[in-house]
Amino acid sequence: MAVPRPFKLTPRPARVARVIQRRNLPTIGLATVALALALLIAHDILIPPGAGTPAAIRTATVVIGTVTNSVSATGSLVPSQQMNLGFKTAGTLTMVAVKVGDVVSAGQVLAEIDPGPLELALQQAQASLASAQAQLDNTKSGTALQQSIDQLNQANQAYTDAVNAANQTTANDQSQLSSDQATLNSDTAILNNDKSAYWFTQYAAALATYQGDLSTAQLAWQNNLPPCSYSVPATGSCLTDQNAIQAAQNNIACTQGTSMVGCTFQQQQMAAAFKAELAAQGQVNADTSKVSADNSKLSSDQAAGQRSIQQAQNSVTNAQDSYNSQAVNRPATIAQQAASAASLAAQVDTAQTNLDADTLVSPIAGVVTSVSAQAGDAVSAGGSSTGSQAPGTTALLPSSGNGSASSAGGFITVMANSSYVTVVSMAESDAAKVQAGQTGSTTFDAISGLTIPVHVLAVAGSATITSNVVNYYVTLALDGTDTRLRAGLTTNASVITASATNVLVLQNSAISHRGTLAFVTLLQGGKSVLTPVTLGVVGATTTEILTGLKAGDKVVLPTASTGAATTRTGGGGGGLFRGAGG
Q: What is the pLDDT of residues 480-506, one digit of tens each?
C-alpha cells in the first residue's frame, strides 16, 4: 500500500507579511472594531438582555378600562350674585331699613329718599311738555299761522311808527337848533357892534393908562424912604404916593362903571360902552351853550331813533321768519315741534321713573354686607351695579368682590348667601383644554373631607397677566352645597378635560416616544418585539391605546437604570434607542 506523500505548502514570502503588517495594519484594526460593533448591535436586537432569564422581565397587561385627563387649579369661593345698590338719582335719605348682617329677600325695601325734589322735577317736565304740545297743536290747527300773520303786521306797523317818530324828533331838534343858531348869530352881531363902538375902543386904552398909573404909584409908595405905612397918617412923599394910588383906583372904577363919584363925562361913556359889551358877550356865551346843547340833543335823538328803528326791523325779521316757518316750512316746523314734544315726553318719563325709584329694594335674596350711609345723609346718583364679573356669570371676580358699596357707586351691598361658584385661575396651557360643561370636583382648605362636584360654566375670553405669567379665569358651578360654605373660602378644583370609557388601557411607564411616534415592547412567544401604537386619551398614570395592541397583551416595562446613558424602554430595542426614556 502506497504511503501518501505529505502535501507541501509553499511558504509566503516574508516580504508580503511585512507589507501587510506595515501598510495595512490600521485598516485591519478598524475593520475588526467595526465587525465587533456590528455583532454587538445584532445581538442586542435579536437577543435582548435578559431574554434568556424570563424571571427578570417586568410586564404590564393591556386591559379594558377608563382613562381620564384632568387639570387642577386653586381659586376662591364667591357668591353667585353680589350687587352694590344705590338710587338712580341724587337725594337725601329719609329712611334706611337694614343694617350689616341682615338677611333680606328679593323685593324687600332697603331705603328711601325724599320724594319732594323728584315731584317738583316731574311737575316742571310736565309743564314744559304741555307748552310744547300746545305749540304743536297751534301749528297743526293753523292758529299759529294766523298769529304769525298778525305778528308780522304788528311788527311792520311798529317799524313805520319807529321811523316816523325818529324823523319827527329829528325835525324838532333841527328846528330848535336853527332857532337858537339864529339867536346866536344876532347876538354875535350886537356884540361885534358894541366892540366897534367909539367909546368901547377908548375904554381899553384908558383902562390900560389908569392901570399903569396905579402900578407906578404903588411902586413909588413901596420904594419910598423912609418906608410908608398905612398904620400911621401919611405925610410928605408917602402922602403924595397914597393920593396917586387913590386917584388911579378912582379912574379905573369910573371907567368900568363900578363907581360914578367924581367921574368925568368921558369915563361915564366908556363905562356904559364897557357894560354894553360885557352884557352882549354874556348873551353870546349863553347862545353858544344852547346851540351846543341843541347839537348834542340832535345827535342823541338820532342815535336813539336809529336804535328804535333797528329794534323794529329785528322784530319784523323775526315775525317774517315765524310767518315763513308757519306758511312755507309748516311741515318741517310740525316735525321739529313734534320731535321737541317727544323729547320732553321722554324727560317726563325719566322724571316719573326717578320718582317711582325713590324707594330702594333688593333685587336678590341674600345678606347685607355693607351700608355706607344713614337717614339724613345725601346720596349721589349711581344706581345699582356690580364689579368685574367672573366669566359666564354675574358673580364677581375674587379681586373685585370686596363687599364695599362705595367702590361701585351704591351705598348698600347685598350678597347671595345660599348659592356659590368657585372662580379659579388656570395657566394658559391648562385653560386651553377646558370647555364649558366639563365636570370635576373641588375641595376646600378650611373644610376637611368635603368634596363637591362641579361643572365648568365658562372660561374667560381674555387673559390676566401678572409678572409676565399668563392665566385665565375659569368659573365652576357647584353641583352640591353645604351649610359650612362661606364666601372667600380657598378651593382646590380639578376638571376632567378628556375621558375614554371601555377602551384599551396601558400604564404610561410602558410607553416610549420617538418624536411624534409611540412604541411599546410587546412580549410575544418569549421574545420582545418593538411595536408602534396609536394613543388616545392620556391620563396621569394610564393611556388609552387605539391601535397596535389588544386586551391581554403583555408589554415589557423598562428595566431599572442608574443613568440616562443606559436607560432602555420597554425591554426591547434598547440597542437602537439607548438613552430615550418613556
A: 989 899 888 999 999 999 999 999 999
Q: Among 267-276, 315-324, 404-413, which stretch is predicted with the lowest mean pLDDT?
A: 404-413
Give the C-alpha separation, 216 to 577, whole Å. 151
The CATH fold of domain 72-111+363-498 = Elongation Factor Tu (Ef-tu); domain 3 (2.40.30)
Buried b / exposed e across 280-299, counting CB within 10 Å, b at 16+?
bbebbeebeebbeebeeebe
Q: What pLDDT is attached to residue 39?
A: 55
Sheet strands (E) in 58-108: 59-61, 63-79, 82-85, 91-96, 103-104
DSSP string, 442-455: EEETTEEEEEEEEE
Average pLDDT, the chain: 83
Cell of 317: 325779521
Residue 319 CB burial class (10 angstroms; 0-12, 13-18, ≥19): buried
Burial of 48 per CB tally in 10 Å (0-12, 13-18, 19+): buried
SS3 413: strand
| Structural contact between residues 441 and 452, judged by C-beta atoms closer than 8 angstroms | yes
The model's pTM: 0.46
CA distance 327 to 320: 10
Dihedral of alpha carbons 256, 257, 262, 264, sign: positive
* Consecutive H or E run containing 469: strand 469-478
